[in-house]
Amino acid sequence: MSNIVEAKSLTKNYGSFTALDGVDLTIPRGAISGLIGPNGAGKTTTLKALIGLCDVDGELSVAGRDPRIARHKLMEDVCFIADVGILPKWINVSQVIDYVEAVHPRFERKKAEKFLSTTDIPANKRIKDLSKGMVTQLHLALVMAIEVQLLVLDEPTLGLDIIYRKEFYDRLLNDFYDGNRTIIISTHQVEEIETLLSHLVFINKGKIVIDSSMSDLSDIYTEVLVDADKVDQADALQPLYVRKLLGKKSYTFESVPKEQLKTLGELHTPSVADLFVAKLKEIKYG
Amino acid sequence: MKNLLLRNRYTLLVVTLIVYMGVLVTEGMITGREARGIEFENPYFDFNSTDFEGFRQRRSDSENENIRVEFDGTGDV
Amino acid sequence: MDKFALLQFYALLKREVLEHRNIFIGAPVVVALLLLVAATWVATQIDQSDLAGGLRFVSVLFDGLSPFDIAPFIMLLAIPFYLTLYVCSVIYLINTLYQDRKEMSVLFWQSMPVSNLQTVLSKIVAIVLVAPIFYVLIIFGMYLVAMVWLTVLGISNDVDLVGIGYLFLAAIASLVLIYISAVVTGLWLLPSVGWLLLFSAFAKKTPLLWAGGVFILVGFLEDFIFGTQFLANWVASRTSDPNQYLIFEFQSVFERVFNYDTLFGIVVGSILIAGAVFMRRFTD
Asked: A57 by DSSP, 3-state: which?
């Protein structure tokens, strides 16, 4: 199976609020996939649904299982780090390592201890006495010592110092990712991860707006810095979004052949952040 | 049907309570349950502290009796 | 059952004890210390020779009886511990599936390959089977201290130490009966265990209020809908008699466990426990 996540028509309502509105999602194995969206778009709900912590309607398959039916079996192959500090406050470092070692068949204690030896985390400190950055370091150390197929990260670096953030992604890429494992990261700090990603998902108001590999993106989306005299021509091609940039106008186009756009001005591929804004503020035609 | 029953925590609670009530009411109807205490016996709760000698005698006797009974069972007395 | 599953379950039990040290260890230790302090105070109010005389009298009184006959009397000393365990159990059960949702650590626990059934079962085993072990050990410690003290008293007042030794044996025997009583009571009260767990898993706030409020409501509903009071009768019949909570003889254990009322209670408790297990899916 080449896709680690296959989701169709996922729906979730909290009372009258629709968190997920028919989400279709496909994430290929071995991808580093970014789930990007504004606050309240449905990122956390989607991720929790993938690991069975949130009941949703629709078809869902993660690593070959339905998370709603066999969550605990799925957790042998999937790990999760959330934005809030979810490690229990009362437990200390060595106790949580003992616990994970006992309950997880794929946990390698030596690996975890090796990762931890490069940090300043003492073995007998309670979680509640650790800083947020250290808690994330600890949680990552635990997760990296498990042979999982999929790692789901929900805003893992939220509220962390830049040093912890950089180190987090460093470790993730160098020590964890091996081409076979899949990582799904949700964040609204787009710039931080855009160079890491191989796959991109935009979600807004419970709907998927983009679901594509990074290489396909550069074929579909083009940004053009349009010369002043070509503005009318550019408008006629129904741009996705227009903004002012350096005295000129920058147009973002979706699915318009590059040959047509070459004549209008300088072409380049929009950054993920710019594309994100463009899709959010999309001009509606008709 | 299962999805309907387990949609959210409220429906699950209601379903559980309905099954619980159903079982209890049915059992009550079948056994004709009335308000009464279920009687368990505890000889020590009937203990009379002024009759301690009698108590000792009874306990010693019952111990000896047990031994005697065993003997009868295995031997050919 | 394979070794890994056993190790997993052991780790779950260990988690419960570590997380609730106050209930498993702290509370009984406090009770034991209070009792020892109280006993010491009482002893200082009485003349030493009177004390020794009392000790002599007791040693002679129990002459001819086996430790298991004496044990029930000593069990009365454990009543404060029963009450403590009872209150602590209610606090433990109503909080155990609620606390980790309140502080979001439920996301960590559920990101581990441990099923909801294993989780809930481990909590029941922890409070019904494991907690009484800690309590019994602490009571033993208390008896040991008392025994040393009594021996010193006995030696200095010429009391026959064999009698004291006999008392100690009876105290050990009573510990076994205390443990059995606690476990059998746990089985007997399984419906209450299930009820508390159900609301611990259900409530977003104030689980105890939910548990109590719905209990009253359900009783009224039964009367309103069916015109019967089987629920109220059933609960009253199971909780009203102190006889139901103490076992004084080994011989009665079998009939205490394998009788219709206990077994029916286990069925009812299982329904509520199943509800709690399914309720664990809702972490929001």
From this structure: strand
Measured distance CA(C271)–CA(C260) in Å, rounded: 17
Residues A172 and A156: their CA atoms lie apart, in Å, by 11
Asked if A156 and A249 sit in the same domain, the reply is no
Q: How far is B56 from chain C (nearest CA, A)?
A: 7
Q: What is the pTM of this model?
A: 0.87
Residue where the block lists tokens 């006797």: B61
- Cβ of C198 and B36 within 8 Å? no
Give the nearest partner residue to A82 out of C107, C109, C284, using CB atoms: C107
Kindly indicate the confidence band of residue B40, based on its pLDDT and cuts at 50, 70 and 90.
Answer: low
The whole-number pLDDT of residue C31 equals 96
Is there a single domain that holds both residue A172 and residue A98? yes
Do A188 and A123 lie in a common domain?
yes
> Residue C23 above 70 pLDDT?
yes
The answer to whether the Cβ–Cβ distance between C104 and A75 falls below 8 Å is: no
Residues with Cβ within 8 Å of residue C103, at least 6 apart in sequence = A88, A89
Distance in angstroms between the alpha carbons of the first and the last residue of chain A? 41
Q: pLDDT grade, residue C27 (50/70/90)?
A: very high
Query: Is it the case that residue C169 has pLDDT exceeding 50?
Result: yes
Report the distance separating Cα A45 and Cα A11, nearest Å.
10
CA distance A57 to chain B (A): 9
Per-residue pLDDT band for B75 (boundaries 50, 70, 90) equals: very low
Mean pLDDT of successive 10-residue stretches along chain A, which has 286 residues: 88 87 92 90 91 89 90 92 85 95 94 90 91 90 90 88 87 82 88 88 91 89 86 85 84 86 85 87 71
Of A147, A175, A205, the residue that ends a domain is A205
What pLDDT does A4 receive? 92
Residues of C in contact with A102 (CB under 8 A): 7-8, 10-11
Q: Are residues A222 and A154 in the same domain?
A: no
Written as one letter, the residue type at A80 is F
Cβ of residue A14 closer than 8 Å to a chain C Cβ: yes
Judge whether A211 lies within some domain. Answer: no
Residue A285 domain-assigned (yes or no) = no
Percent of chain C past pLDDT 90, that is, above it, reads 52
- Which domain does A253 fall in, by range? 217-280
From the list C105, C110, C113, which residue is nearest A73 (CB)?
C113
Q: How many domains, in total, are found in chain A? A: 2
A286 within a domain of the structure (yes/no): no
Q: Which of B10, B11, B12 to mutate to test the interface with C (most CBs of C within 10 A)?
A: B12
**How close is the nearest chain C Cα to the Cα of A270, in Å?**
36
Of the CA atoms within 13 Å of residue A79, those in its CB half-sphere come to 23
Instruction: Please give the residue of chain A at the shortest CA–CA distance from C21.
Output: A90
What confidence score (pLDDT) does residue C258 get? 87
What is the distance between the alpha carbons of residues B54 and B66, in angstroms, rounded to a whole number?
18
The answer to whether B2 faces chain A, any CB pair under 8 Å, is no
Contact C230 B28 (CB under 8 A): yes
Question: Which chain C residues are within 8 Å of A75, Cβ to Cβ?
Answer: 110-114
The reply to whether residue C282 touches residue A55, judged by beta carbons under 8 angstroms, is yes
CB C73 within 8 A of CB B56: no
